[in-house]
């Protein structure tokens, strides 16, 4: 620093203004100093700090790097240079700058902690953990040290120790918004949505500009069904962070689940304008298009599902190209089932059509539905997943067949039944169902707990109580999972004949359905099966169903024998059951 008393006084005045938050006046003092002494390192450094505080990162970096050139022996210059580089996303360069600061001032806990944070983002979590621990040992009051240790541990997949580290950071500084956010992320990952929500709200309260916490809070609220509030936080995140495709895409999902499909598509379109190759968003957009019956574009976009995280586990390296609808009289086409049992049942209708275009059709599908598919017209062979694959000329995912056949809204292949069961099996299960007066109605009350929307789509047994009391009806349970437990808990064992637990596969379920007058089920494979067998089926849907059930319809173009009962309001299963009970009573009276 120069010994000029006028410059020294001006610098002290500028620092006082700077510390008081009067940045414009402080900046003016620093610039005046530089007019008289262009190589004044302290003034360059402080001017760079003001630019950093105001978000002018490149300008800040240029000023502080000039200060370092003039006087590279000041640890503070290197430390602040590292912080600016970190803000610019240049993590490896930031780590080098912090290391330079530590060579000049080895015991600086704050710089050690900052070095740890830079190393985490640079990909060296193990080294980051060591530096963060050293910082914490040197400065037990420094909240940033356990915070950066937590980041390192989280990167190393050590979520338990990471959670503890973030909690230690919050003990040192309860208003540490970033630590609350990271703790919330771990709690959300562990399924503690209530705990995650508390942490995200704390983070936002302490840092109203923390858009990442707003986004994650929106995700938690959406998972909990509080969609309107989720939309609010997604919008706040976009206002705070600017246009980010994933946040806009999450907003689209929430809008779609609210039933505002047009607004959802608009959100997806805006997100894709930023990130056109985002497979998650394109898949969600495809489902919105299909829900509106815009099949041509919807099927085409639906192919993006194979590039999403959800499909990564079942994606395979096929040796032959995908069949795209062409006529190949000598070719063997391998069709592979890809999602749930209901999907397999619904889209099996395309296999006879495929058989008329190619020489041979081999279907790979799960064992529970394999018996039904063996007798399907056009299918030459059925194999189970994991079995050796036969020689084939083309492959095609089962749910790509609608697009390959250019299915439009008016050309859905809806001829039913397209599935059948052997007469002997139908007779066997007919004996189990038994005869007697009254309607014979099969019931299902929940789907597989593995389904990500199961909580939304499954009413549960208790809700059906008014339906099960309709006179003139004999109820038969087709519920496979937890049948006996659910009936006993609800004290309904005497009201419903339990058969589902005895089913070995969907062939047994189908044979039983053939002996019933009606099936009532939520959005599960049993509902698809009844429709594919052309048996009367009443489908219970949440207020906004999956794309295949379109919007607002009480019928399905996929299944002519189906009647749809939708929740009149989100979560209102009572309204669905009440409407069904009225119609069932009328049906029972004849």
Describe this structure in words.
55% of the residues lie in helices and 9% in strands. It is an alpha/beta fold and 590 residues long. It has four domains: 213 residues, Serine Threonine Protein Phosphatase 5, Tetratricopeptide repeat; 56 residues, Tetratricopeptide repeat domain (Serine Threonine Protein Phosphatase 5, Tetratricopeptide repeat, Alpha Horseshoe), CATH 1.25.40; 84 residues, no CATH class; 167 residues, Rossmann fold (3-Layer(aba) Sandwich). The strands form two sheets. A six-stranded parallel beta sheet has the order 7-6-5-8-9-10, sandwiched between helices. The radius of gyration is 32 Å and the shape is elongated. The termini are far apart. The mean pLDDT is 95.
Q: Which CATH architecture of the largest domain?
A: Alpha Horseshoe
Shape: elongated
Largest beta sheet: strand ordering? 7-6-5-8-9-10
Oligomer: single chain
Q: By CATH's scheme, which homologous superfamily of the largest domain applies?
A: Tetratricopeptide repeat domain
Tally of individual domains: 4
> What's the end-to-end separation, in Å?
101 Å
How many β strands by DSSP? 10
How much of the sequence lies in strands comes to 5-15%
Examine the coordinates and then state which fold CATH places here, giving the name of the CATH topology of the largest domain.
Answer: Serine Threonine Protein Phosphatase 5, Tetratricopeptide repeat
**Structural classification:** alpha/beta
Give the CATH level 1 class of the largest domain. Mainly Alpha
Instruction: Give the averaged pLDDT, no decimals.
Output: 95
Total DSSP helices: 29
Radius of gyration: 32 Å
Poorly predicted runs of 5 or more residues:
none
What fraction, in percent, of the residue positions are helical? 40-55%
Query: Main beta sheet, described?
Result: 6 strands, parallel
